[in-house]
Amino acid sequence: EAEVAQSPRYKITEKSQAVAFWCDPISGHATLYWYRQILGQGPELLVQFQDESVVDDSQLPKDRFSAERLKGVDSTLKIQPAELGDSAMYLCATSSQFEAFFGQGTRLTVV
Amino acid sequence: RKEVEQDPGPFNVPEGATVAFNCTYSNSASQSFFWYRQDCRKEPKLLMSVYSSGNEDGRFTAQLNRASQYISLLIRDSKLSDSATYLCVVNRGNNNDMRFGAGTRLTVKP
Q1: Which of A84, B64, B72, B74 matches a 20 to 30 Å C-alpha distance to B86?
Q2: Residue B73, SS3 per DSSP
Q3: Residues A44-77 pLDDT 10s
Q4: A94-105 burial, b if ≥16 CB within 10 A, otherwise e?
């Protein structure tokens, strides 16, 4: 069964350092989402791509977060500099039409 | 006010109980609706889509009321394995924009 691949699974970083996450979507899925999920809360949309174009990044803290999907396939999410409050699960999801399929996520701990 | 709001929970029920979760959404242009299930420290997975006519999948029944902008999920004959967080998801339609509720945590006890 096709799946969304994310790496790394876990990341521990010191505050003020840079960190990057990678997502490889299900082949053919044009829509790609990055969500952040804090423990005990629902996923919060950070950025949405349609192919290589950003559709919605209104909730992305642009002073420190950036996301790209250069060829409309895989995507990277970067945080620089990381802050303690960035500790969370970062989920990538992709969709062909309606249903979203999630990767296993990257659990980030900022110390 | 959040765009998608759910019962905060947690719900603690005995095995065999019937439990219902509610969800409201604020964007009247929303086009499709889903319930996702998320196990502890795992990614969300689709449980079922929600149709205007209501739909059933085994012990699970989902209902949509567009006029009231309200979605529900009913679980009958709860099993221990139903313990999870249930996320209400609304697709706003334009650009396939999906928004999640905060989730309702269910614990089914023996």
Answers
A1: A84
A2: strand
A3: 999 999 999 999 999 999 999 999 998 889 999 9
A4: bbeebbbbbbbb
Q: Which residue of A has its CA nearest to B3?
A: A44
**pLDDT for res A40:** 82
Option in A41, A102, A104 nearest B102 (CB): A41
**Tokens 């642009």, residue?**
A62
- Most B CBs within 10 Å, among A46, A58, A102, A108, to test the B interface: A102
pLDDT 10s digits, B52-110 = 888 999 999 999 999 999 999 999 999 999 999 999 999 887 677 888 999 999 999 99
**Stretch A16-29: mean pLDDT:** 95
Locus of tokens 């706003």: B92
Q: Which residues of B touch A58 (CB under 8 A)?
A: none
